[in-house]
Amino acid sequence: MRCSGCGKKFNYEKYYGICPKCGCFNKNETTQEEQWPSGEKRSTLFLAVSLVCFCLAFAGGKAYTWYYRNHYKYQLENELKQDFYETEVLRKEHEVGESFSCQGITLTVMEAKVIDWEEGTEIPDGKKVIAIKIAGESNGKWEQKNQLRLPYIRCGDLYYHMFQGELSEEDEERYEIPMFSEYALCEETHVEGWHLFFVDEWEQVFTLYWEEIEYEEIERIQTIHSIKFQLEGGLEQ
Question: For the CA atoms of 11, 16, 17, 22, what is the dihedral angle to 10 degrees?
């Protein structure tokens, strides 16, 4: 190594960087450069390390997100299914004329009667028409809870679904049975109307059912409301 002070050559390792002629201390630039990269090299190295760390973090984040979403969804579905099968459905019996809450709306089943249809009206053979009058109250907004679920009736071991067709205005006026639409309470705050059922001619006793649904990830029946009817003794025309 050549001394930076006097220019004398000497053995850097032997004299520990101190010039034996003038006593000047000299840095070993070659050794230092080998040990520490230059500023440009350090920047490149830092950028490379940062890029690798970012890629690893991004890949790890993606993997975690995928695992979390799928695992959480799978776990949630299992928990809901378990709750669905373990939760007992509530059953509530009501009287004719009694108001009760169903899906957040107030319903009152007012009366039931058998409609004496005129000849020529298309009615299934061996059937008669039962009309049930309903009164309902809601906030009158287009909300899911205000959509009235369709009821059904049970006679013994047989179940009958509600007639979902439409009557002409003439028939509604003739038989005085304006229909109660399932969307009626989405437009009005108070509605009165009728539901029609075709049942076997000999049936006199039946029960009207309304299912109250809980809407979550899995739709399930929360409560079943029921009202018993006896058509004998004044209800049958």
Answer: -80
